[in-house]
Protein: Protein FAM107B isoform X2
Organism: Dipodomys ordii
Amino acid sequence: MMGSLTHYGQEEPLEHTDPKDLYLISKNIMAEPDYIEDDNPELIRPQKLINPVKTSRNHQDLHRELLMNQKRGLAPQNKPELQKVMEKRKRDQVIKQKEEAAQKKKSDLELELLKRQQKLEQLELEKQKLQEEQENAPEFVKVKGNLRRTGQEVAQAQES
């Protein structure tokens, strides 16, 4: 482990040194540029190089458009096919859950109307079944039913 030299030439561990001293030590290692100290007009000061791509009008317009789209939430879609499908499934599932929740929150009136509608449908189905049975029944069953009815009618007529 390296340490810093004290004024007696002995090494002092870096763990016990002050952070300000570490800054001064690292500053002494690096040489400072000449143009910072002197205001000599003969020296050429370094300037940042111009990037021709960034200064081009097309690049600036494209960059501005991308920033606007990002603020609006219209970022370009570079997602893989699988990720798109999974997101669509998730959206569909959320929509289905919302619809089910809306159906569960039906009012009492709606529930009562649904019950009555179901009862009416069941009664209609039963009537249809009875009519089909009567139509499909053999001839002797129909005749027997007619005889019973006429026998009951005759009995009622005689009693009165």
Summary: The first strand starts at residue 3 and ends at 5. Residues 35 and 81 are 56 Å apart (CA to CA).
